[in-house]
């Protein structure tokens, strides 16, 4: 409220036809679906990127846009090859949208990078010999035929009875289950895992589906957790001004700041605008609990007794019975259990 932003919830046509300047469009309760699990009326990452670029490029001063292909990480934790490949391809389409605009605009830099590796996915596995003569199609096996990820397939199986599993798997994955695989899925029919980071390392129906799907390929995974290798980076700059070789995340931040014309180091801005809650609330009793979604939340009371609840990563704070909007979000760093708030935070919420 009060920002001039249009909110669209689950209305694909309204999203496609919107022609204003400020939009917040939501299509799911939490994250978007995997690309091959997308339901009718849910835009692709490329389409959302195109819409954002069209809106933001109206600003003659320029813009900064971050596009994240996020749940490929979920697929890696689950060791699900369909989720990994399909969402990387969807991300690639979003990159193409960005590059097409940048090359036409001739004043836009595109940085493609990831924060970490996960899963250690490989083309090839134990016993897979003479790979150089087999070709890609042989390595991928049944993967191109999959019409669902293991997560999407889990949802399909939850909607039917266990004796229908074999036919549904054949229909959507092209896999004719063995008797042992069918029995394993039936045994795990009630076993689900809500924490995406634990799917691949626990016994549940999604992890079993992922293993079955992987077994029809020559793909292998080395782990169900994050990995520590150097990560991929690609940069397009119309003037070929780009870093090459190995760089830390701080150096990439500096590069992005430079091409945007920001001369002051980001740390200086942080120190100028933000202060740890321990300093801001010195002498005030506070607790760090959880909000309704299980995320960290800072709680304390003002001098007049009104309770204040500050959710991590949010611009909206509850003060007594009302909600106040902050200029900048409350940042929470889990490593040191600290909230970072703007120095004028108290005056903003009074």
Summarize the structure.
With 350 residues, the chain is an alpha+beta fold.
Q: What percentage of amino acids are in beta strands? A: 15-25%
What structural class should be given to the helix and strand makeup? alpha+beta
- Unreliable residue runs: none
The chain-level mean pLDDT equals 94
List how many beta strands DSSP finds.
16
Largest sheet data? 5 strands, antiparallel
Radius of gyration (CA) equals 24 Å
Strand order of the largest sheet: 10-11-12-13-14
Taken in chain order, the helices and strands follow as EHEHHHEEEHHHHHEEEHHEHEEEEEEEH
Net shape: globular
- Helix percentage range: 25-40%
Number of helices: 13
- Gap between N and C termini: 18 Å
């Amino acid at each position: 409220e009060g920002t001039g932003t249009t909110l669209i919830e689950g209305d694909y046509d309204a999203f496609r036809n919107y022609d204003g300047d400020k939009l917040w469009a939501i299509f799911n309760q939490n994250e978007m679906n995997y690309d091959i699990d997308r339901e009718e009326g849910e835009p692709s990452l490329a389409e959302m990127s195109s819409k954002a670029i069209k809106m933001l490029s109206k600003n003659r001063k320029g813009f900064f846009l971050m596009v994240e292909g996020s749940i490929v990480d979920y697929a890696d934790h689950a060791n699900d090859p369909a989720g990994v490949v399909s969402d990387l391809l969807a991300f690639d389409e979003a990159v193409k949208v960005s590059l097409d605009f940048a090359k036409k605009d001739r004043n836009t830099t595109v940085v493609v990078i990831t924060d970490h590796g996960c899963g250690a996915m490989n083309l090839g596995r134990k016993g897979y010999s003479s790979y150089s003569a087999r070709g890609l199609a042989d390595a991928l096996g049944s993967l191109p035929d999959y019409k669902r990820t293991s997560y999407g397939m889990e949802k399909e199986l939850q909607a039917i009875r266990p004796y229908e599993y074999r036919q549904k798997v054949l229909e959507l994955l092209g896999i004719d289950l063995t008797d042992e695989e069918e029995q394993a899925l039936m045994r795990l029919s009630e076993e689900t895992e809500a924490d995406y980071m634990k799917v691949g390392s626990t016994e549940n129906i999604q992890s079993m589906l992922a293993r079955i799907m992987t077994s029809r390929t020559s793909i292998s995974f080395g782990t169900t957790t994050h990995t520590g290798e150097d990560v991929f980076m690609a940069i397009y700059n119309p003037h070929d001004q780009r870093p090459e070789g190995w760089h830390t995340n701080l150096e990439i931040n500096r590069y992005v700041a430079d091409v945007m014309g920001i001369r002051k180091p980001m740390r200086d801005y942080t120190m100028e605008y933000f202060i740890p809650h321990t300093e801001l609330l010195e002498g005030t009793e506070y607790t760090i609990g959880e909000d309704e979604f299980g995320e960290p939340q800072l709680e304390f009371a003002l001098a007049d007794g009104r309770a204040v609840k500050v959710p991590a990563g949010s611009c909206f704070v509850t003060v007594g019975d009302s909600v106040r909007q902050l200029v900048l979000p409350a940042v929470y760093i889990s490593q040191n259990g600290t909230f970072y708030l703007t120095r004028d935070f108290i005056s903003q919420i009074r």
